[in-house]
Amino acid sequence: MQTISSTQPGSTQQPGPVEIRARLRAMWASVADGWAEHADYTDRRAADLTRLMLQRTDPQPGERVLELASGPGGTGLAAADLVGPDGEVVVSDVVPAMTAIASARAAARGLVNVRTRELDLHEIDEPSKSFDVVLCREGLMFATDPAHATSEIRRVLRPGGRVAIAVWGPRERNPWLALVLDAVSGQTGQPVPPPGMPGPFSLDDADRLAGLLSRAGLVDVEVTDVPVLTRAASFEEWWVRTAALAGPLSKMLESLPSPVLLAIEHQLRSATSTFQTPAGLELPGLALLATAKRNTA
């Protein structure tokens, strides 16, 4: 096992929110190429989740939709047909490289009612009461202050507006990623994510998630379990794709010595063997889908 240090020798000081956000922006920017390459795959994997998000927020022709922490923008692009030519979808991310991917995908589909913006979900630079629907798929869990971010979401919703937020559920229900985190931590001696950094399971408790929305002043709050299955024709396909999309892990994996990478791969081959099927790997996953409304007052 090789120990990889993430702090300066002798330093015990944890980074503050501003530094954490800067690190997260840099990290997601560094893996944008991987997300561009696998954008269609991520949309296929989350197809049922996206369908439910749109079903429960019910975007109507002529309405305005905001997607936050969009990555390649799959959820917002899926909403574009629903609001029609008289509506508008704003696909946003804090990382310009991600919004560039979403813009290119919208253009390739001929979606003239989609525009992109660089927005931080902690401080949404849009007018109050300006959107009928807000969507955020797999983004809020990386917020350093999810309570404030949720309040910002309420602020930009019009009275009667609807919101759908999807995050990953409990770690033990998501072996597609938990096994990777365990293998990397086990082989490097470094916790993943690092202390103080929000990670993919930071909002994995349904009651906490519902409480965030309620305390922000949203009403009719519901949280639903949604299965999300990860499929791959082979271990190699799954591992290449997962390494490219794994956000905080991707650059870390690139920096590891070959023997450590081989040890991680060996551990993962063994750990995922129980999920082998005649068609390839099928790893279970679980998302939490939270929906709510802004009251009409």
What about the largest sheet? 7 strands, mixed
How many extended strands?
A: 10
Work out the helix count: 12
Low-confidence stretches: 1-12
In terms of quaternary structure, the protein is single chain
**Rounded average pLDDT:** 91
Q: List the helices and strands in order.
A: HHHHEHEHEEHEHHEEHHHEEE
Kindly report the spatial arrangement of strands forming the biggest sheet: 3-2-1-4-5-10-6
Helix content: 40-55%
Examine the secondary-structure arrangement and name the CATH architecture of one domain.
3-Layer(aba) Sandwich
Classified by CATH, the class of one domain is Alpha Beta
The CATH superfamily of one domain is identified as Vaccinia Virus protein VP39
Per-chain topology:
Blueprint: H1 17-30, H2 32-37, H3 39-45, H4 47-57, E1 64-67, H5 74-83, E2 88-93, H6 96-108, E3 114-118, E4 131-137, H7 146-156, E5 157-168, H8 175-188, H9 206-215, E6 218-227, E7 230-232, H10 235-245, H11 248-255, H12 258-272, E8 276-277, E9 280-283, E10 286-294
Parallel strand pairs: 1-2, 1-4, 2-3, 4-5
Antiparallel strand pairs: 5-10, 6-10, 7-9, 8-9
Summarize the structure.
This protein is of the alpha/beta class.
Account of the protein in words:
The protein has twelve helices and ten strands. With 297 residues, it is α/β, with parallel strands linked by helices. It has a domain at 17-170 and 195-230 and 286-294: Vaccinia Virus protein VP39 (Rossmann fold), CATH 3.40.50.150. Strands 3-2-1-4-5-10-6 form a seven-stranded mixed β-sheet, with helices on both faces. The chain has a three-stranded antiparallel β-sheet with strand order 7-9-8, covered by helices on one side. β1, α5 (74-83) and β2 form a beta-alpha-beta unit. α8 packs antiparallel against α12 (258-272). Mean pLDDT is 91; it is low at 1-12.
